[in-house]
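Reopening this one. Same input as before:
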Amino acid sequence: MVYGNENAENRTGTVAFNLSGVLPERIGNWLDQEYNIAVQTDLQWRLQGNF
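Same output, byte for byte:
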């Protein structure tokens, strides 16, 4: 599931999503290693309101 505005013109470079049954760290590592995409996956970052 991808969260955000359905209109592409109103989206930013940040995308929030989840995959049921898959740990965020595993997704983040895979995106980093395979596609060189920087991903923030830890809870502390979300608790500080940086989302």
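So the earlier flakiness isn't reproducible anymore. For the record, The chain is about 35% helix and 10% strand.
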